[in-house]
Amino acid sequence: MSWLRVETPLPSGPMHIAVTPLGVVAGGYLGDEAGELPRCTDEAKIAAVKTRIGDYLAGRSREPGLPIDWSLSTGPHRTVLQTLLREVPYGRTITYGELAARSGVFEGVAEPGLAARTVGQMMAANPVPLLVPCHRVVAADGIGGFGGGRVGIEVKRWLLTLEGVLEPTLDWNGPL
Predict the structure, then answer these.
(1) In a domain, 146, yes or no
(2) Which of these, 19, 131, 142, 165, has the minimum number of CB atoms within 10 Å of its CB?
(3) Which of 60, 64, 73 lies closest to 131 in space, CA to CA?
(4) Do β-strands 94-95 and 137-138 pair in parallel, antiparallel, or remain unpaired?
């Protein structure tokens, strides 16, 4: 696994993306706090990741369209993430509870709200954010959470605005 930095217009600053021979395996909105990570030196991978993420964040494409290495998610977590990727397209959202139901992972769970809360935890542990669009998963009564505290919520708002789910505010700095 090796890492590369992708400059973004996101409120969190640059992203850090980890790649393997199979695809993108991890990523995060780490800004300048990534520390010392093994650097990717494969120029073709660097160019592909930067171009595709850049095109998505500039509004030129609807998905990053990069191959995903699923090795950091297994079992029910992988099932929920793959359901999200497959069933919730650009510009759409789904609630935590709806995603839990669609995934089929929580059949037989009787405790009210448990499946939705668990899906929220799974979204927080998504190893490949942006590629698996956890920003599209919202609470039944609002936007819901997003890792990274206030900056994380601003990233979620920014991405949902990019996709047309939310109206731009006066301080919107994304593509028109």
Answers:
(1) yes
(2) 142
(3) 64
(4) parallel
Q: Which of 134, 138, 159, 162 is catalytic?
A: 134
Asked, for residue 175, whether it belongs to a domain, the answer is: no
In a domain, 171, yes or no: no
Q: What is the pLDDT of residues 3-60, one digit of tens each?
A: 999 999 999 999 999 999 999 999 998 665 556 789 999 999 999 999 999 999 999 9
Task: Assess whether 81 and 48 both reside in one domain.
Answer: no
Phi and psi at 78, nearest 5°, equal: -65, -40
Annotated catalytic, 40? no
Q: The domain containing residue 18 runs over which residues?
A: 2-57
Residue 19, burial from CB neighbour count under 10 angstroms (0-12, 13-18, 19+):
buried
In a domain, 176, yes or no: no
3-state SS class at 125: coil
